[in-house]
C-alpha cells in the first residue's frame, strides 16, 4: 500500500499541507524565475551582438 489512504490525505500531507505545498510553490517560482532570467539574458545578448555586427559592417563598408 501507499503512504496515504486517499487523495484528500495526500493533499493534507498529515497536517503539514501549508508548509509542504508552500515549499513546492516557492521552489517552482524560483526555478521559473531562473529559467526566465536565463532566457532574457540570452535574448539580450544576441540582440546586442546583432546590433554590434551591423554597426561593424557599416563602419567597414564606409
Describe the structure.
This protein has one domain (18-61). By secondary structure, the chain is mostly helical. The protein is built from two helices and no strands. 82% of the residues lie in helices and 0% in strands.
Helicity, in percent?
A: over 70%
Mean pLDDT rating: 93
User: First CA to last CA: what distance?
Assistant: 77 Å
Structural class: mainly alpha
Rg, nearest Å: 24 Å
* H/E series: HH
Shape: rod-shaped
Largest sheet: none
Strand content: under 5%
User: Low-confidence spans: pLDDT under 50, at least 5 residues?
Assistant: none
Counting DSSP E segments of at least 2 residues, the number of strands comes to 0
Number of domains: 1
Number of helices: 2
Please write out the topology.
Layout: H1 7-12, H2 17-61
Quick overview of this protein structure:
The protein has 62 residues and is mainly α.
Can you tag this structure with a few keywords?
mainly alpha, 2 helices, 62 residues, rod-shaped
